[in-house]
Amino acid sequence: MADLRAVVEQLKKERDKLNRAIAALIGSTSRSGGGGRRKLSAAARERIAAAQRKRWAKFKRKKG
């Protein structure tokens, strides 16, 4: 009976090791895949838009 417990304990350790490896693989693919987009606040979008409008105005002044 003690031998069976040792086998079960060894299998549990291997299962835990495999679960950690799977979690690491899943975590690395979800982070490096770039699947999700970062969310900007409305204020940040407005700052970016204002800066782009300023760049375009400068470009048009030089061109015209």
Write up what this structure looks like.
The protein is an all-alpha fold and 64 residues long. The protein is 83% helix and 0% strand. The protein contains two helices and no strands. It has helices spanning 2-32, 42-63. The mean pLDDT is 88.
Radius of gyration: 28 Å
Helix count equals 2
| Tertiary shape | rod-shaped
Assembly type of the shown chains?
single chain
The proportion of strand residues reads under 5%
Mean pLDDT: 88
Through-space gap between termini: 91 Å
Summarize the main sheet.
none
Descriptors:
83% helix, single chain, 64 residues, mainly alpha
Describe how the helices and strands are arranged.
Blueprint: H1 2-32, H2 42-63
In short:
With about 60 residues, the protein is mostly helical. Helices cover about 85% and strands about 0% of the residues.
